[in-house]
Amino acid sequence: MLDIQVNHCQRAQCTHTNCPASDMLHIYTSAARAHHPMKDLIRTIFSIRQQRRTPAAGPIPPLGTFIVRKEIRMAVNQPIPHDLWNWMVLSDWRTVPVKKDRRKTLELPAGALQELISAPPTERDTVHARILTRARVSRA
Length: 140
What we know:
Oligomer: single chain
Number of helices: 6
Shape: elongated
Largest sheet: 5 strands, mixed
Order of helices and strands: HHHEEHEEHHE
Number of strands: 5
Structural class: alpha+beta
Strand content: 5-15%
């Protein structure tokens, strides 16, 4: 009977309540989690957060994606002309680097990109400044 117990406890799926193997499994799976609230709290208290660097400029983003500038996000719902994308890269706009972006951002209205596309190159800075003032908290 004791041999069966020892053999059973060597498996990773052990469900015994007093089994040291299941306790160790719990410790290892807890340590493997990516989010550590205590570390997060310590970093906040001691102000040891690191600012992210601006990612490298990429190609023109495809339709249906998002682009970000600091904490502001804009949907790409129109094809972006090459010259406008070069201007936007110089204005710190970048494609979202991950598929599911969980950062808290402000979102620009749906017509913001169309306004930038329609604006003459000499007036892009003023149109851009006006658009940025209309950013709102995103629903997602």
